[in-house]
Amino acid sequence: MVIVETEAYLGVSDRAAHTWAGRRTARVEPMWGPGGRAYVYRIYGIHHCLNVVTRREGVPEAVLIRAAVPERWWMGEKVARSALLEASGPGRLCRALGITAALSGAPLSGGGLELRRGPGRGFVVATGPRVGVDYAGEAASWPLRFAVDGCEAVTARRSLRRPPAS
DNA sequence: TGCAAGATTTTC
DNA sequence: AAAATCTTGCAG
After folding, report:
1. pLDDT digit string (tens) for A25-37?
2. Rounded CA separation A73/A80 (Å)
3. pLDDT for A9-61, tens place per residue?
4. How far apart are CA A149 and CA A11, in angstroms?
């Protein structure tokens, strides 16, 4: 799959982050570990969400993976609409990839998960506020969501903006 | 030990 | 627009 939508969560100063104000519980422990590992949590009792821990040990920042598309579609081939949207949304993405909380803390290479640089091809990255964090006060308006502009598998496209024309 | 709320998805 | 569904975190 090729990741097409992400959100950043900025450690202890980000009210929308699970590690806001230095929270450190068993659930978020992988966030506090070294980068390059997964942080997976269950949400609403039903779904799972996958994050990539990004910083060094002790700095709990991560990127939430919200949507991905099949490589074949990304390379221009046609795929069924159901397949295109199979990993659209953080919960569906985890279900499509078989990711559960059991993988929280696992390395993103060699540990059952494989994350690598995708085929970058002159796409436009749109930005906007993060989804579902209205409770986070000012942080709710921070433009920390990033997505491939115009991609149908990207969620909540209404709130996304293209970068200023160059 | 109990309860309110949630980084969502699906259906009415 | 609202339910489904249950874990986490915090209060007591």
Report:
1. 999 999 999 999 9
2. 9
3. 999 999 999 999 999 999 999 999 999 999 999 999 899 999 999 999 999 99
4. 27
Q: Which two tokens stand for residue A104?
A: 């929280």
Which of A's residues 48-87 have CB atoms within 7 A of nucleic strand B? 49, 51, 62, 64
| Reported pTM | 0.94
A47 CB contact with strand C at below 7 Å: no
d(CA A16, CA A9): 7
CA–CA separation, A123 and A163 (whole Å): 12
Give strand letter and number of the nucleotide nearest A131 (CA to C1'): B7
Protein contacts on strand C: list nucleotides below 7 Å from a Cβ. Answer: 4-10
